[in-house]
Amino acid sequence: MLSYRHAFHAGNHADVLKHFVQLQLHEYMNQKDTAYTYIDTHSGAGVYALDSGYASKNAEYETGIAPLWERLDLPKPLADYVNLVKGLNPSGKMRYYPGSPYVADKAMREQDRLRLFELHPADAKILADNFRKVAEHAAAQGVVASGRGKRVLVDRGDGFHALKTLLPPPSRRALVLIDPPYEDKQDYRKVRDAVEEALGRFPTGTYAIWYPVLQRMESRSFSDKLKRLHGKDWLNVSLTVTTPGPDGFGLHTSGMFIVNPPYTLEPILRQVMPYLVEVLGKDEGATFVIESGVPLTGSAAARPGAGGAVRVPVGNARRASPLSGTGSLRLPGQAPAGTPGSAGAAGPLGRAANTSGRPTAKTSGRPTAPGSGRPSGPKPPGSRRP
Questions:
Q1: What is the CATH number of the domain that holds 103?
Q2: How far apart are CA 247 and CA 250, in angstroms?
Q3: pTM
Q4: One domain for residues 74 and 222
Q5: How would DSSP label each residue in 85-128?
Q6: Burial of 155 (0-12, 13-18, 19+ CB in 10 A)
Q7: Which of 206, 230, 275, 295 is spaced 20 to 30 Å from 51 by Cα?
Q8: What 3-state class would DSSP assign to 210?
Q9: Is 105 assigned a catalytic role?
Q10: 147 in Cβ contact with 158 (< 8 Å)
Protein backbone atom coordinates (compact mmCIF):
# COMPACT_ATOMS: atom_id res chain seq x y z
CA MET A 1 0.00 0.00 0.00
CA LEU A 2 1.08 3.59 -0.66
CA SER A 3 0.20 6.64 1.41
CA TYR A 4 -0.31 9.63 -0.87
CA ARG A 5 0.27 12.80 -0.85
CA HIS A 6 3.68 12.87 -2.33
CA ALA A 7 5.11 15.08 0.42
CA PHE A 8 5.19 11.96 2.63
CA HIS A 9 7.67 10.35 0.21
CA ALA A 10 9.75 13.34 -0.90
CA GLY A 11 13.39 12.54 -1.55
CA ASN A 12 13.09 8.77 -1.08
CA HIS A 13 14.84 6.16 -3.27
CA ALA A 14 11.99 6.25 -5.79
CA ASP A 15 12.39 10.01 -6.16
CA VAL A 16 16.12 9.60 -6.67
CA LEU A 17 15.54 7.19 -9.56
CA LYS A 18 12.73 9.25 -11.08
CA HIS A 19 14.40 12.64 -10.96
CA PHE A 20 17.83 11.34 -11.94
CA VAL A 21 16.32 9.77 -15.07
CA GLN A 22 14.22 12.89 -15.71
CA LEU A 23 17.32 15.08 -15.63
CA GLN A 24 19.08 12.83 -18.17
CA LEU A 25 16.08 13.14 -20.50
CA HIS A 26 16.13 16.94 -20.25
CA GLU A 27 19.85 17.08 -20.95
CA TYR A 28 19.36 15.04 -24.10
CA MET A 29 16.43 17.19 -25.24
CA ASN A 30 18.56 20.30 -24.70
CA GLN A 31 21.10 19.16 -27.29
CA LYS A 32 18.90 20.44 -30.12
CA ASP A 33 18.21 24.15 -30.51
CA THR A 34 14.52 23.61 -31.28
CA ALA A 35 12.28 24.31 -28.30
CA TYR A 36 10.34 21.50 -26.66
CA THR A 37 7.36 21.17 -24.34
CA TYR A 38 7.50 19.41 -21.00
CA ILE A 39 4.17 18.03 -19.77
CA ASP A 40 3.86 16.84 -16.16
CA THR A 41 0.54 15.06 -15.63
CA HIS A 42 0.82 14.79 -11.83
CA SER A 43 3.05 17.65 -10.74
CA GLY A 44 2.57 17.74 -6.98
CA ALA A 45 3.63 20.83 -5.03
CA GLY A 46 6.95 21.34 -6.84
CA VAL A 47 9.14 21.74 -3.71
CA TYR A 48 9.00 19.90 -0.36
CA ALA A 49 10.38 20.79 3.08
CA LEU A 50 12.24 17.80 4.51
CA ASP A 51 12.58 19.10 8.07
CA SER A 52 8.90 19.77 8.74
CA GLY A 53 5.38 18.75 7.79
CA TYR A 54 4.59 15.57 5.87
CA ALA A 55 8.15 14.79 4.74
CA SER A 56 9.49 14.74 8.31
CA LYS A 57 6.79 12.30 9.47
CA ASN A 58 8.38 9.19 7.95
CA ALA A 59 11.69 10.77 6.87
CA GLU A 60 11.73 8.67 3.71
CA TYR A 61 14.42 10.93 2.28
CA GLU A 62 16.82 8.94 4.47
CA THR A 63 16.39 6.07 1.98
CA GLY A 64 17.24 8.27 -1.00
CA ILE A 65 18.83 11.69 -1.22
CA ALA A 66 20.31 11.69 2.31
CA PRO A 67 22.91 8.92 1.74
CA LEU A 68 24.05 10.70 -1.45
CA TRP A 69 24.33 14.17 0.08
CA GLU A 70 27.93 14.05 1.31
CA ARG A 71 29.33 11.44 -1.10
CA LEU A 72 32.51 12.46 -2.88
CA ASP A 73 32.61 9.53 -5.32
CA LEU A 74 29.37 10.16 -7.22
CA PRO A 75 29.41 9.23 -10.92
CA LYS A 76 29.16 12.48 -12.89
CA PRO A 77 25.57 11.99 -14.14
CA LEU A 78 24.45 11.32 -10.57
CA ALA A 79 26.51 14.23 -9.26
CA ASP A 80 24.66 16.56 -11.66
CA TYR A 81 21.36 15.47 -10.09
CA VAL A 82 22.64 15.86 -6.51
CA ASN A 83 24.05 19.30 -7.35
CA LEU A 84 20.65 20.35 -8.68
CA VAL A 85 19.11 19.40 -5.33
CA LYS A 86 21.90 21.22 -3.48
CA GLY A 87 21.13 24.32 -5.54
CA LEU A 88 17.80 24.45 -3.72
CA ASN A 89 19.70 24.38 -0.42
CA PRO A 90 22.30 27.20 -0.60
CA SER A 91 23.08 26.90 3.12
CA GLY A 92 24.46 23.42 2.52
CA LYS A 93 21.97 21.89 4.93
CA MET A 94 19.51 19.44 3.36
CA ARG A 95 16.17 21.18 4.02
CA TYR A 96 14.27 21.16 0.71
CA TYR A 97 13.73 18.60 -2.01
CA PRO A 98 12.62 19.48 -5.55
CA GLY A 99 9.72 17.77 -7.27
CA SER A 100 9.68 17.07 -11.00
CA PRO A 101 8.43 20.60 -11.94
CA TYR A 102 11.43 22.19 -10.23
CA VAL A 103 13.83 19.71 -11.87
CA ALA A 104 12.32 20.58 -15.25
CA ASP A 105 12.44 24.33 -14.61
CA LYS A 106 16.13 24.21 -13.70
CA ALA A 107 17.11 21.88 -16.54
CA MET A 108 15.13 23.50 -19.37
CA ARG A 109 15.99 26.58 -21.42
CA GLU A 110 14.23 29.91 -21.83
CA GLN A 111 12.64 28.92 -25.15
CA ASP A 112 11.15 25.69 -23.76
CA ARG A 113 7.68 25.40 -22.25
CA LEU A 114 6.43 23.72 -19.06
CA ARG A 115 2.81 22.58 -18.78
CA LEU A 116 2.08 21.41 -15.24
CA PHE A 117 -1.09 19.69 -14.03
CA GLU A 118 -2.20 18.78 -10.50
CA LEU A 119 -5.68 17.78 -9.29
CA HIS A 120 -5.13 18.05 -5.52
CA PRO A 121 -6.35 21.57 -4.63
CA ALA A 122 -3.77 22.24 -1.89
CA ASP A 123 -0.81 21.02 -3.95
CA ALA A 124 -2.03 22.86 -7.06
CA LYS A 125 -2.13 26.13 -5.10
CA ILE A 126 1.33 25.58 -3.61
CA LEU A 127 2.71 24.73 -7.05
CA ALA A 128 1.28 27.92 -8.58
CA ASP A 129 2.54 30.00 -5.64
CA ASN A 130 6.02 28.51 -5.93
CA PHE A 131 6.35 29.42 -9.59
CA ARG A 132 4.87 32.86 -8.99
CA LYS A 133 7.58 33.48 -6.38
CA VAL A 134 10.25 32.23 -8.79
CA ALA A 135 9.02 34.68 -11.44
CA GLU A 136 8.93 37.55 -8.93
CA HIS A 137 12.45 36.75 -7.75
CA ALA A 138 13.72 36.66 -11.34
CA ALA A 139 12.07 40.00 -12.07
CA ALA A 140 13.64 41.51 -8.95
CA GLN A 141 17.03 40.37 -10.26
CA GLY A 142 16.39 42.10 -13.57
CA VAL A 143 15.81 38.88 -15.52
CA VAL A 144 13.29 39.45 -18.29
CA ALA A 145 11.72 36.50 -20.12
CA SER A 146 12.65 36.62 -23.81
CA GLY A 147 10.15 34.09 -25.14
CA ARG A 148 6.59 34.87 -26.22
CA GLY A 149 3.79 33.81 -23.93
CA LYS A 150 4.16 32.19 -20.54
CA ARG A 151 7.01 29.74 -20.14
CA VAL A 152 5.32 27.95 -17.25
CA LEU A 153 1.59 27.26 -17.04
CA VAL A 154 0.10 25.61 -13.95
CA ASP A 155 -3.36 24.08 -14.25
CA ARG A 156 -5.45 22.49 -11.52
CA GLY A 157 -6.75 19.80 -13.80
CA ASP A 158 -6.55 16.26 -15.14
CA GLY A 159 -3.14 15.65 -16.68
CA PHE A 160 -4.39 12.61 -18.61
CA HIS A 161 -7.01 14.73 -20.34
CA ALA A 162 -4.43 17.45 -21.01
CA LEU A 163 -2.42 15.11 -23.21
CA LYS A 164 -5.31 15.09 -25.66
CA THR A 165 -5.19 18.86 -26.04
CA LEU A 166 -1.43 19.47 -25.92
CA LEU A 167 -0.16 16.77 -28.27
CA PRO A 168 1.35 17.19 -30.74
CA PRO A 169 3.06 20.42 -29.57
CA PRO A 170 3.81 23.22 -32.07
CA SER A 171 7.54 22.43 -32.14
CA ARG A 172 6.92 18.69 -32.60
CA ARG A 173 9.20 17.99 -29.64
CA ALA A 174 7.91 16.92 -26.22
CA LEU A 175 8.87 15.15 -23.01
CA VAL A 176 5.94 13.80 -21.00
CA LEU A 177 6.30 12.65 -17.38
CA ILE A 178 3.48 10.52 -15.96
CA ASP A 179 3.58 9.52 -12.29
CA PRO A 180 0.15 9.17 -10.66
CA PRO A 181 -0.14 7.97 -7.05
CA TYR A 182 -1.34 4.45 -8.04
CA GLU A 183 -3.48 4.28 -4.89
CA ASP A 184 -6.39 3.43 -7.16
CA LYS A 185 -5.67 0.28 -9.16
CA GLN A 186 -7.39 1.95 -12.12
CA ASP A 187 -4.37 4.26 -12.39
CA TYR A 188 -2.43 1.47 -14.08
CA ARG A 189 -5.05 1.17 -16.81
CA LYS A 190 -5.37 4.94 -17.13
CA VAL A 191 -1.63 5.33 -17.64
CA ARG A 192 -1.45 2.67 -20.31
CA ASP A 193 -4.50 4.00 -22.13
CA ALA A 194 -3.23 7.59 -21.95
CA VAL A 195 0.18 6.69 -23.38
CA GLU A 196 -1.38 4.53 -26.09
CA GLU A 197 -3.63 7.41 -27.18
CA ALA A 198 -0.78 9.91 -26.92
CA LEU A 199 1.39 7.76 -29.18
CA GLY A 200 -1.42 7.76 -31.71
CA ARG A 201 -1.44 11.57 -31.66
CA PHE A 202 2.30 12.10 -31.34
CA PRO A 203 4.35 8.92 -31.96
CA THR A 204 7.78 10.60 -31.77
CA GLY A 205 7.40 12.09 -28.29
CA THR A 206 9.37 10.81 -25.30
CA TYR A 207 7.14 9.39 -22.57
CA ALA A 208 8.57 8.68 -19.08
CA ILE A 209 6.34 6.65 -16.74
CA TRP A 210 7.20 6.20 -13.09
CA TYR A 211 5.65 3.21 -11.31
CA PRO A 212 5.88 1.40 -7.96
CA VAL A 213 6.45 -2.37 -7.78
CA LEU A 214 3.89 -3.70 -5.30
CA GLN A 215 2.24 -7.01 -4.47
CA ARG A 216 -0.99 -6.27 -6.35
CA MET A 217 -1.40 -7.95 -9.73
CA GLU A 218 -1.85 -4.67 -11.61
CA SER A 219 1.58 -3.56 -10.47
CA ARG A 220 3.39 -6.83 -11.21
CA SER A 221 2.13 -6.97 -14.80
CA PHE A 222 2.34 -3.24 -15.52
CA SER A 223 5.72 -3.01 -17.24
CA ASP A 224 4.93 -5.98 -19.50
CA LYS A 225 1.79 -4.20 -20.68
CA LEU A 226 3.77 -1.05 -21.40
CA LYS A 227 6.21 -3.06 -23.53
CA ARG A 228 3.38 -3.75 -25.97
CA LEU A 229 2.81 -0.06 -26.69
CA HIS A 230 3.71 0.89 -30.23
CA GLY A 231 6.52 3.35 -29.71
CA LYS A 232 9.75 3.16 -31.67
CA ASP A 233 11.47 1.43 -28.75
CA TRP A 234 11.39 1.29 -24.98
CA LEU A 235 13.65 1.16 -21.93
CA ASN A 236 12.71 -0.07 -18.47
CA VAL A 237 14.83 0.44 -15.36
CA SER A 238 13.95 -0.49 -11.77
CA LEU A 239 15.70 -0.10 -8.43
CA THR A 240 15.18 -2.36 -5.40
CA VAL A 241 16.68 -1.18 -2.12
CA THR A 242 15.56 -3.95 0.21
CA THR A 243 13.98 -7.39 0.30
CA PRO A 244 10.16 -7.13 0.17
CA GLY A 245 8.50 -7.72 3.52
CA PRO A 246 6.11 -10.64 4.00
CA ASP A 247 3.17 -8.30 4.68
CA GLY A 248 3.52 -6.56 1.28
CA PHE A 249 3.59 -3.08 2.82
CA GLY A 250 6.14 -0.41 2.04
CA LEU A 251 7.84 0.63 -1.17
CA HIS A 252 10.91 -1.49 -1.81
CA THR A 253 11.09 -1.19 -5.61
CA SER A 254 10.18 1.42 -8.21
CA GLY A 255 10.80 1.79 -11.92
CA MET A 256 10.95 4.20 -14.81
CA PHE A 257 9.61 3.06 -18.16
CA ILE A 258 10.56 5.26 -21.11
CA VAL A 259 8.92 5.04 -24.52
CA ASN A 260 11.19 6.41 -27.28
CA PRO A 261 14.21 6.81 -24.96
CA PRO A 262 17.36 8.64 -26.07
CA TYR A 263 20.23 6.37 -27.06
CA THR A 264 22.40 8.02 -24.40
CA LEU A 265 20.27 6.87 -21.46
CA GLU A 266 21.05 3.17 -21.28
CA PRO A 267 24.86 3.54 -21.05
CA ILE A 268 24.40 6.11 -18.28
CA LEU A 269 22.11 3.77 -16.36
CA ARG A 270 24.61 0.92 -16.67
CA GLN A 271 27.17 3.20 -15.05
CA VAL A 272 24.98 4.60 -12.27
CA MET A 273 22.59 1.82 -11.20
CA PRO A 274 25.26 -0.44 -9.60
CA TYR A 275 26.39 2.59 -7.60
CA LEU A 276 22.84 3.32 -6.39
CA VAL A 277 22.44 -0.29 -5.29
CA GLU A 278 25.72 -0.10 -3.39
CA VAL A 279 24.88 3.16 -1.60
CA LEU A 280 21.09 2.89 -1.12
CA GLY A 281 20.78 -0.89 -0.72
CA LYS A 282 19.72 -2.05 2.75
CA ASP A 283 20.30 -5.81 2.45
CA GLU A 284 21.15 -8.61 0.01
CA GLY A 285 17.81 -8.11 -1.75
CA ALA A 286 18.96 -4.77 -3.17
CA THR A 287 19.37 -4.91 -6.95
CA PHE A 288 18.51 -3.22 -10.23
CA VAL A 289 17.09 -4.26 -13.59
CA ILE A 290 17.64 -2.66 -16.99
CA GLU A 291 15.60 -3.84 -19.98
CA SER A 292 15.32 -2.48 -23.50
CA GLY A 293 13.51 -3.54 -26.64
CA VAL A 294 11.41 -2.76 -29.68
CA PRO A 295 7.73 -3.73 -29.87
CA LEU A 296 6.98 -6.44 -32.44
CA THR A 297 4.38 -5.80 -35.12
CA GLY A 298 2.95 -7.57 -38.14
CA SER A 299 3.06 -11.34 -38.49
CA ALA A 300 5.53 -11.73 -35.61
CA ALA A 301 2.94 -10.34 -33.21
CA ALA A 302 0.79 -13.47 -33.45
CA ARG A 303 3.39 -16.22 -33.77
CA PRO A 304 2.02 -19.66 -32.72
CA GLY A 305 3.67 -21.18 -29.68
CA ALA A 306 3.56 -24.63 -28.11
CA GLY A 307 0.29 -26.44 -28.72
CA GLY A 308 -0.76 -23.86 -31.29
CA ALA A 309 -1.39 -21.14 -28.71
CA VAL A 310 -0.83 -17.62 -29.98
CA ARG A 311 2.05 -15.82 -28.27
CA VAL A 312 1.94 -12.06 -27.74
CA PRO A 313 5.52 -10.78 -27.99
CA VAL A 314 6.65 -8.31 -25.36
CA GLY A 315 9.50 -6.77 -27.30
CA ASN A 316 12.32 -7.48 -29.68
CA ALA A 317 15.55 -7.96 -27.72
CA ARG A 318 18.02 -5.31 -28.73
CA ARG A 319 20.90 -5.79 -26.32
CA ALA A 320 21.67 -7.82 -23.24
CA SER A 321 24.62 -7.42 -20.90
CA PRO A 322 24.29 -9.87 -17.99
CA LEU A 323 26.52 -9.05 -15.06
CA SER A 324 29.37 -11.47 -14.58
CA GLY A 325 28.15 -14.15 -12.19
CA THR A 326 25.03 -12.24 -11.07
CA GLY A 327 23.10 -11.01 -14.10
CA SER A 328 20.59 -12.98 -16.11
CA LEU A 329 18.80 -12.99 -19.42
CA ARG A 330 15.47 -14.55 -18.58
CA LEU A 331 12.12 -14.83 -20.29
CA PRO A 332 8.78 -14.37 -18.49
CA GLY A 333 7.78 -17.65 -16.83
CA GLN A 334 11.22 -19.19 -17.39
CA ALA A 335 13.32 -20.60 -14.55
CA PRO A 336 16.27 -18.44 -13.52
CA ALA A 337 19.43 -18.94 -15.50
CA GLY A 338 21.57 -21.74 -14.10
CA THR A 339 18.64 -23.75 -12.70
CA PRO A 340 19.47 -27.44 -13.33
CA GLY A 341 17.37 -28.87 -16.14
CA SER A 342 15.85 -25.54 -17.16
CA ALA A 343 15.54 -24.70 -20.85
CA GLY A 344 17.14 -21.32 -20.23
CA ALA A 345 20.04 -22.50 -18.10
CA ALA A 346 23.02 -20.26 -18.53
CA GLY A 347 26.02 -21.43 -20.48
CA PRO A 348 29.67 -20.71 -19.81
CA LEU A 349 29.25 -17.00 -20.66
CA GLY A 350 26.23 -16.50 -18.40
CA ARG A 351 23.80 -16.12 -21.35
CA ALA A 352 20.47 -17.88 -21.31
CA ALA A 353 19.19 -19.62 -24.40
CA ASN A 354 16.16 -18.01 -26.07
CA THR A 355 13.62 -20.70 -26.82
CA SER A 356 10.20 -19.18 -26.17
CA GLY A 357 9.59 -16.76 -29.02
CA ARG A 358 9.04 -13.91 -26.54
CA PRO A 359 12.42 -12.15 -26.49
CA THR A 360 13.29 -9.46 -24.00
CA ALA A 361 16.62 -7.97 -22.96
CA LYS A 362 17.35 -7.77 -19.24
CA THR A 363 20.32 -6.81 -17.14
CA SER A 364 20.18 -7.13 -13.38
CA GLY A 365 22.46 -7.47 -10.43
CA ARG A 366 24.47 -5.94 -7.61
CA PRO A 367 27.95 -4.43 -7.66
CA THR A 368 30.52 -7.22 -7.57
CA ALA A 369 32.79 -5.58 -5.03
CA PRO A 370 32.21 -2.90 -2.40
CA GLY A 371 33.22 0.49 -3.68
CA SER A 372 33.61 -0.68 -7.25
CA GLY A 373 30.54 1.14 -8.56
CA ARG A 374 30.57 -1.10 -11.65
CA PRO A 375 29.92 -4.74 -12.39
CA SER A 376 32.89 -6.75 -13.59
CA GLY A 377 33.22 -8.76 -16.77
CA PRO A 378 33.09 -7.88 -20.46
CA LYS A 379 29.98 -6.35 -21.97
CA PRO A 380 28.58 -8.46 -24.82
CA PRO A 381 28.04 -6.47 -28.00
CA GLY A 382 24.48 -5.32 -28.64
CA SER A 383 22.43 -5.85 -31.75
CA ARG A 384 19.62 -3.96 -33.48
CA ARG A 385 16.76 -4.97 -35.64
CA PRO A 386 17.32 -3.92 -39.26
A1: 3.40.50.150
A2: 9
A3: 0.78
A4: yes
A5: HHHT-TTSS--EEE-HHHHHHHHS-TT-EEEEE--SHHHHHHHH
A6: middle
A7: 275
A8: strand
A9: no
A10: no
